[in-house]
Amino acid sequence: MDNQTTEQQVQSDPIANTTTDQSQTSVLSGEQTTTQTNFQDLIPDEYRAEKSLENFKDMGDFVKSYLSAQKIVGADKIPVPNKFATEDDWKAVFNKLGAPEKPEDYKYSFKEGEVDQELVSSFNQEAHKLGLLPQQAESLIKYYNNITEGSSIQAEEKAAETRLNTENELKREFGPQYAKRLDQAKRLASSTLGNEFLENTFLQDGSRLGDNIAVVKAFSQLADKLSEDEVVKGDTSSYMTAKDLQKEIASLQEEGSPFWDKQHPNHDRSVQEVFKLRELLHNG
How confident is the model at residue 26 (pLDDT cuts 50, 70, 90)? Predict the structure, then answer.
């Protein structure tokens, strides 16, 4: 009896031992083993070589791509005309994309007077013919308008610079007769070619026709030959030759004149007049 009792105590429950071992293994490892599935392994063999499937890392990426594709499939589709398509075929495509029915239907955000309306009307005809969408048409016309404005500003700056250079050169060449000769040249040029043509015609060097030094000199020389012509002559009373200026200066500086008498009430006026005449004589 004693021996049997002792043997029973020595034996242990195999189920309990197994549970204890498993628990210890779990506690000692401190980790839970998770099996991660490779997405490529889920692809059937016949599709595994597809290049479009190489970029998917997991099922989530694949599902997102599939849903996105389904949305596209459900959207309205516009067939792209082939090389045999007619203008009407292309027009139908452009209309579906949003091109207006008529050229007049193009609308822009320009302020009044900011663009030439005749130019806009002509542009609308061509834009409609090409099937441009409203936003494309507005972007193009704004781009063209900016270029035109920039070119106009540059042209004005160049013309102003040329005019100043012409004036300085003619003042040196004509001297005291500068104002008279320039006025006579302008009178003759205006009566011959017209002011609008002189102002709006630009030469290759960027100068206006009416400001080009060669043109001004040519009309001045021609005006000298036609000096008795009423168109050229104009009002000559306001012009003084160099001799006239010298004569007037000498008259103001005569002995006993107010010019020499500081106490004379007209002394300052005489001095200023002489100063002006001398300036005209030397600077034109």
Answer: very low
What is the residue-wise DSSP string for 5-42? HHHHHH---HHHHHHHHHHHHHHHH-----PPPPHHHH
Distance CA 249, CA 267 (A): 14
> Which bin fits 42, alpha (ψ -120 to 50), beta or left (φ > 0)?
alpha
Distances (CA, A) of 246 to 5, 7, 8, 123, 253: 158, 155, 153, 63, 11
What tokens does 163 get? Answer: 């005019």
Which residues lie closer than 8 Å to 12 by C-beta, 6 or more apart?
Answer: none
For residue 225 the two structure tokens come to 């030959």
**pLDDT (tens digit, 9 = 90+) per residue, 180-197?**
888 888 888 888 888 888
- Can you tell me which residue has the tokens 């398509």? 85
202 forms beta bridges with 208
Measured CA to CA, the distance from residue 120 to residue 143 in angstroms comes to 13
Between CA 74 and CA 179 the distance in angstroms is: 81
In angstroms, the CA 43 to CA 41 distance is 6
CA-based nearest residue to 179, from 207, 231, 216, 218: 216
Tokens encoding 42: 């889920």
The vertex-182 CA angle with 246 and 168, nearest 5°, equals: 80
Say if residues 141 and 115 touch (Cβ distance below 8 Å). Answer: yes
User: What letter represents residue 212's amino acid?
Assistant: N
Question: What is the distance between the alpha carbons of residues 175 and 161, in angstroms, rounded to a whole number?
Answer: 21
> pTM of the predicted model, to two decimals?
0.35
**Could you give the C-alpha distances from 45 to 39, 42, 49, 50, 99, in angstroms and in order?**
13, 9, 8, 10, 48
Which amino acid belongs to residue 162?
Answer: T
